[in-house]
Structures are given as C-alpha cells and as structure tokens.
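[SOLVED] Need 3D model of a two-part complex

Original post:
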Amino acid sequence: MTFLAAIPSELIHIVIGMVAIMAFVGIHVLVLVYAERKGAGHIQRRPGPFEVGPHGILQPLADAGKLIGKQLFTPTNADPILFWMAPVLAVFPVLLLFVPMPFGPVVTVQEVNLGLLLILAFAGIGVLSTMLAGWASNNKFGLLGAARTVSQSVAYEIPLLLAVLCIAFQKGSLNLSTIVEGQGSWPWQWNIVTQPLAFLIFLVCAFAETNRAPFDLPEAESELTAGFHTEYSGMGFGMFFMAEYANMVVVSGVCTALFLGGWKGPGIDGVWWFMIKVYALLALFIWVRWTYPRVRFDQLLNINWKWLIPLATLNLLGTVFLMKVF
Amino acid sequence: MVFSWLHLAIILFLVLGALFAGGPLALASLLAPKAKGGDMGMPYECGIVPLGNARGRFGVNYYVYALIFLAFDVDVLYLFPVATQYRWTVGWDAFFEILIFLFFLGLAVVYFWAKGVFTWPRKIRL
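Solution:
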C-alpha cells in the first residue's frame, strides 16, 4: 500500500474520472441510439427495432458491430489526411467537455472556475471537424452541407453565448458548480424562473448547435443526401454519429446546471436529480426531432439574426439593468 | 507556466478523446474488407457521373454571414470577464458601459439588415 500512497490523490481522481467519463459517454451513446430509434418508431406508429434481443434492446450493439465490419473507404479525389482527421476531430474534444460538469455535490472530475468557458471553447472544435469533412471529401453535397453547418453553428453560437451570459452576470461566476449552488432545491428557486427567455433561447440554440431537427439542415437527406458526411462509410460515419449524441448529453447537462438547478431537487439532492433532468431534456430532443418538420435554410438563418440575437441582447441588457435596480 | 492539475486533466482527456476516436477506426481498418477498383472512388452524387470538381466557385452568401459572426463573437467574448465582476460593482457606471458596448454590438446587426444581407434571394450591394 505504500506504493499507492505515493501517488498524488489528484492524479487518482483524474484517472478515475477518465474511466468513469469514458464509460458514461459510451453507455449513453448506445442508450440514446436505442431511445431515438424506439422513440421514432412509436411516434410514427411502428414498433421500431424489435428483432435483436427483447424489444430490440441489443440493436445499438449490433449496429456498432456492423459499423466496425464496414470498409473505411477514401474517395479517389478526396484529401486523405484531412478526410480522416475530421471524424477523429469530431470525437476528440467530447470527453473533455465532461470535465467541469457538476454531476453531484462532489461528483465532478475537476471543479474549474472557468468551467463554462472551457466547455464553450472546446465545443467549437466540432464545427472545425464538420468543415474539414465537407471540404476534404470533394463532394458537392458534402461541401454544401459543410457550408450550411458552419454558417448555422457560428450563427447560433451568439445567442447561446448571450443566454449563458445572463446567468453568468446574475451569479457572478463561470464555475458550473457555483452556479448550481446558487440555486435552491425547489423548482421556483431555479434560474429558469428568473430567466425564462434565456432558457428558451438556450434551448433553441442547443437544437441548432447539435444539428438536430428542426434545424438538421446540414444533413437534410431530401436535398443533400447526407450533407457533410455523404462520403463517409462505416466507422467514419459512426464517429460523427457518436459525437452528435455525446454533444446532446453535454448540452443537456449544461442546460440542467445553468437553468434547472443541476443536482438540486425536492427531497434529497444528489446525482439522480441531475440525471433525471438530463434524461428529460434528451427525451425532449428526441420528441422534437420526430414531431417538427425541417425549416428552410434562409428561414433558419433569419430567425437567428432577426429574432434570437436582438432578443438575447435585450434580455442581457434587461438582466443587467434589473440587477442594478434591485 | 505554473503546473496545475487542471492542465494535466485537459491534456489527459484530450489524449483519451483521440484514442476514443482512433480505437474504433483502427479496429475497423483491421477487420473490414479492402475492396477497390471500378467506380468505387467516384464522389456519390446519386449515381450520376459528377460534372467537374466540387471545389469550384462558391456563393459569397456564406462569407457575409462569417463576417457578422466575427464582429459579434469576438465582442461577446469580452463580456465574460465582465460577467464575473459585474455583481460587485457599485453605482450605475458599469451598467452604462455595458449599455454602450451592447449598443454598438446591436448596430452591427442593424447595418447588415439595412444592407440586405438577411433578404433572400440575395440582393446585396457590396
């Protein structure tokens, strides 16, 4: 045991965090794939996956096995280095985004005083991977999809930042754990009550940032085959898929911490409240995806520039003003 | 630079992220078949032989959106340090400073709106 005592406890903490986060992301991607397909099925009045295991519960594992068995193909005119860099880059920052996530009172990998900024900064790498994927695959659909994704992601990042800033101004901190501690246990003590508009803007931007319907234009099948990942086969496509689902979990987690009181709830505070709220938001994501039709691209950009950004700016200004009044 | 456990955590998590992405790809390249030949390498455009290169000339529309984004995003970043301190400021000075800042930020949208960037089909006079 003397050998173990020589290792600094912080290092042990980080290593345990790495293993836990990796398992967390892996399991949640599998669960979300199943939940999405099952949800899609039931919303469209069909059973969804049903053959592999009871009620198709092993379907995501079968999918993963199939994806690994598919050939990784590089198109002739594609740029091979950039082409394969893109899927790696999509997943690369995902695990880091969970580092400042406040799962529970003490359940965080690292308490970071700039946690919010860390998440926002590294989430930006995802846009880069999309752009590389579209550009490198030398496909017209891919390039058009990439151009759309980039202009959509960068546009919706601004109201997202402004909505997040409202909370940061109110709490005077960028530390997610501190922001959670500043809220009470009961729903009317959560930030969503004082910042309902910021919550709505954040939610809309979250849909757009994760490229989910009704804002899934970058991969609009009916017009662009598959958008930026048209040329990716097997696991290359699987990586983009995994990044999308992991980002959904991240966005739900941040939303929970900022607006819905994080791990606090009526009764006993703890990790379970955080997870319940995250699952509720994820269910909302899936529900919205299979309920609303896709919007047109100019509508998508104009909603953002003509409505969301002015509203978010005014909301921030109102927050700042009211903070001085009271 | 001063060492902190956060730096180590960030580096380790990024390495882990790269492995998390590279592992399945490496496994797939070991297990999967390696067929080639024929028209396999052709870009997929719904079965039609593609006409020309994809990396041709491209509409300028997206470029203008990128410009507004730059104007906005860089400015909004300046508000993050303000956010951490604003709560403890005394008097109305800080509020008016933020008001002026956001006013000029808002002018960018008004300018591009008047310029016709948000009107589709495009009628920009550059």
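Edit: Chain B has a mean pLDDT of 79.
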